[in-house]
Fold this sequence. Notes:
three-stranded antiparallel sheet, 22 helices
Amino acid sequence: MLSPNSINTLGDLRRAVARDPGVNLRVKDEIRRNLIRKMRAGDTLFPGIIGYEDTVIPQLTNAILSRHNFILLGLRGQAKSRILRGLVDLLDEALPVVPGCEVNDNPLAPICAGCRAQIAEEGDLLRIAWLPRSARYVEKLATPDVTIADIVGDIDPIKAAKGGLHLSSELTMHYGLLPRANRGVFAINELPDLAGKIQVGLFNILQEGDVQIKGYPVRLPLDVMMVFTANPEDYTARGKIITPLKDRIGSEIRTHYPQTRRLGMAITEQEAWVKRADTECGVEVPEYVREIIEEVAFQARDDKKVDRRSGVSQRLPISCLENVVSNAERRALINGEGLAVPRVTDIYGALPSITGKFELEYEGELRGAETVAREIIRSAVSNVFGNVFDRLDGHEVVDWFDNGGTLMLSDSTPAGDVISMSRSVPGLIRLVEQVGVRRDAPAPVAASAIDFLLEGLYSLKKISRSEERGYQAAETPRRTPRSSEPLFDQGVSVPTKKKYYN
């Protein structure tokens, strides 16, 4: 690997390459060499990518070892862009280039006329510039308004007029993004959205390794790795990638959502902003809250009312967890509590972070995004709590509600009040200990566990609940209420979400 500390001129570079020709590699060989070094050292190939160890990463490794241009096919929120940006870590730390060259020309094999003239004039005394690896990655989001000039380049008549040059001269060229990515990685996100005629302009670089600008007989033999992303629906069903271009892409790699809840939780924990140093109260997120939030994404992906073709991004649980923590933080600040502990109720309060993360089918559109989201949350709570309930002896709590007991709580009820009010429910505090909460646990932790138990019993239809926000619980009460008792409060909207358990 070349070092900027020992190479200052073209002459120094020539001598270094003469001693070790392997340091002057084309970009695909350079990435391949550095990947092999990482594999031999046992290093993590793509840090921060979780859940692809046995699926995507091996295929990606094969593509790089094969020196392929490749495309990642996957629904939104499957870390496709992150993987492409991770290729930067496989580049050398710095690359010797001709100073001021727009296409990062190799001083030993220049491709543009200006650099050839400069090298001919200065020879081995030419000063060498060093390009950091971060500047060798160029990314473009494909949109319908992208032109061939944006990607490849065009003639610049102003440059020709100022220099007194003929328009056919190479020196009049204005290079596009692709030539400027020379000796690096060029990524195009959402390739199907690129117009067909622009896709045709990529043929030569993928097959012959060169581009031609504006029809003049000037070819640039570029050294570049090209990588793409696409939604599989666009790629196969709508057919927006033209067939000759698909044929020229070396490897097609399919990504996927986390295959288990635990993997999803690991991704969410890595990405979500939970540790908040700028607040006066600490934050502690119970494991069951993390599980329910992740299960919301899994339930949404399987829900028939949600459009599976558009997918449910992994950004849903990330945004939801951040919103849930904020709701708990708000409650702690209002009540002067030193610890913010999210409750299951806070997930319902995080609906704005959920409803915008999925597209609905016709049936879902009829029901409305918020109604669908509430049903999904309830299913998620049921799945997570169902495993816990099997280990609990909750008949005493259920019997108390069946015999006419009621409990009114809201999402802003202080932790101490939640505990004191729950003491009237026989056996409820005992169940808190059974879900892993110690007797000496802080009040917000115990209050969160109480909320989890009540919401869990509601999700399993052991008890019923109404929310005084204009929505009526779907379940039929398990007992006949006294005429003086309010059971469902329809059409009422109040600032806080009061819950009436019975």
